[in-house]
Design brief:
Layout (H helix, E strand, L loop, with lengths): L6 H10 L1 H4 L7 H11 L5 H10 L17 H14 L10 E7 L3 E6 L8 E6 L8 E5 H18 L3
Helix pairs in contact: 1-6
């Protein structure tokens, strides 16, 4: 039986987001397999679970962000350009997935093949100190922080 890396996040979502946004929209196994085939690597379990849970939730909690299956290819292609535009001296791994981006100034990735089922995440954000790529914990740590931050904003500003 596979470990549910997102159990804590699902509980948090049900309590703090579902009442306002409903249930998230996920991807199919076929969608995920197609992405893996394009990338040439298997995706880590925690990320696969995220995609199945909310990989197509364009109108949900991450509306306006590029956290979704349709964004992976463009996020991955854009990351070296973002670093070069900002003169960031950072060596990207040979293979990686840009799983998150935001409005052309934030990008997050993990290496492929993944080091674990819940891999370390690296983030670059323009204007943030230090002006470099930083390690941000595991994928689920990063996802939970972003989810909690978005939920806090959602709940501060009712419709």
């Amino acid at each position: 039986m596979e470990t549910d890396h997102l159990a804590k996040l699902r509980t948090y979502y049900e309590q703090h987001v579902s009442p306002r946004k409903g249930n998230p929209v996920g991807c199919s196994e076929s969608d995920i397999s197609d992405l893996e085939r394009d990338l040439g690597f298997s995706l880590p379990l925690a990320y696969r679970q995220y995609l199945r849970w909310m990989g197509r939730d364009h109108n949900g909690i991450f509306i306006g962000c590029n956290w979704f299956l349709k964004d992976v290819r463009s996020n991955t292609e854009y990351l070296p350009e973002l670093l070069a535009e900002n003169s960031v001296d950072w060596r990207l791994p040979e293979h990686y997935v840009g799983f998150m981006g935001h409005q052309g100034y934030i990008a997050a990735y993990f290496s492929l093949p993944a080091e674990s089922d819940d891999p370390p995440v690296f983030l670059y954000s323009e204007g943030r100190e230090p002006d470099t790529v930083t390690e941000e914990g595991t994928f689920t740590d990063f996802l939970f922080r972003d989810l909690a931050g978005m939920a806090a904003c959602l709940n501060r500003h009712p419709d």
